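Project outcomes to date are best conveyed with an example. Our students and postdoctoral researchers have been running inverse folding experiments weekly, and each run begins with a structure described purely in tokens. The record below, which covers 304 residues, was selected by the lab manager from last quarter's runs and is presented without edits.
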């Protein structure tokens, strides 16, 4: 049985741990020489560090609850609206739990049968107390968040489904892709196809939804962080040699004006990439390609 077939069988098996499945994917990534697949697998196996973007399937909405008392009254398990907590903590995304832990630490047998899981937020009790949300006579004894246990289990299912879709799509195009010497992503045509399959199956719709000027693109790039920029561009199918060319361009043009006008070298590079989108060499539509580049570069330059 070949490696791709093993991965497919493990992906549909409820008895094979997700971490075992991912370790086989790590071997596949090595055989393909695919850094994109390897990075994703390692994040899932080791956990997502604080500076890494967490995939949407690992983001879970939190329901806040509090217990408090004063001399006359006591409240238990009282729901607290997300908007009030966001105001108190000055964090509009505080109600989004980003699950960064390694997938091997999500124990399905322990979670099954539970309706919710709790996140201890007692460290924020004093801030909540001083925010004026509650009557000042009340003392907060507990503050926590609840997330549906089913959505935590859904992380494991999401990984299995993505691996299965990737393996099926890859085997359809390259049946011997999992074997040593089968294919090499160093070949430009193979790299383009494998990256497209990765973006469609693992990332989901190549990181954007819709098409044309109405496409919604999810881009996370820190101001001046070319590592972030490189990762985002690779995820959207831009070749390594093009990214290296951009790196030289932005190094010589490290800033742009607030009118969002690029320097001549960066502008020339953007024009080149739009030309590739028009010719089909970059596998996105012209307008969608323009949206991807604009969002990524403006975030890099700190304009958005």
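After processing, the design step wrote out the following sequence:
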């Amino acid at each position: 049985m070949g490696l791709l077939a093993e991965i497919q069988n493990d992906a549909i098996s409820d008895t094979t741990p997700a971490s075992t499945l991912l370790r086989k994917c790590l071997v596949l990534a090595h055989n393909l020489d695919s850094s994109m697949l390897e990075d994703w697998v390692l994040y899932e196996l080791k956990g997502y560090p604080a500076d890494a973007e967490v995939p949407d399937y690992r983001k879970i909405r939190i329901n806040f609850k509090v217990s408090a008392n004063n001399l006359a009254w006591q409240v238990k398990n009282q729901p607290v609206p997300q908007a009030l907590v966001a105001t108190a903590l000055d964090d509009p995304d505080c109600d989004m739990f980003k699950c960064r832990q390694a997938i091997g630490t999500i124990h399905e047998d322990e979670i099954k049968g539970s309706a919710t899981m709790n996140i201890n937020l007692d460290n924020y009790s004093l801030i909540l107390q001083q925010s004026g949300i509650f009557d000042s006579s009340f003392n907060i004894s507990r503050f926590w968040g609840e997330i549906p246990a089913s959505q935590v289990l859904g992380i494991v299912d999401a990984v299995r489904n993505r691996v299965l879709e990737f393996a099926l799509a890859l085997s359809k195009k390259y049946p011997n892709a999992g074997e040593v010497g089968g294919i090499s992503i160093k070949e430009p045509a193979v790299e383009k196809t494998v990256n497209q399959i990765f973006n469609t199956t693992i990332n989901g719709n190549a990181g954007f939804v819709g098409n044309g000027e109405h496409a919604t693109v999810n881009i996370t790039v820190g101001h001046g962080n070319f590592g972030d920029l490189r990762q985002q561009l690779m995820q959207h199918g831009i070749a390594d040699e093009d990214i290296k060319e951009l790196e030289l361009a932005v190094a010589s043009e490290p800033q742009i004006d607030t009118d969002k006008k690029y320097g001549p070298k960066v502008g020339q590079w953007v024009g080149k990439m739009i030309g590739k989108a028009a010719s089909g060499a970059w596998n996105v539509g012209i307008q969608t390609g323009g949206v991807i580049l604009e969002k990524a570069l403006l975030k890099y330059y700190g304009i958005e």
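The first helix runs from residue 3 to 11. The mean pLDDT is 85. The training component of this project remains on track.
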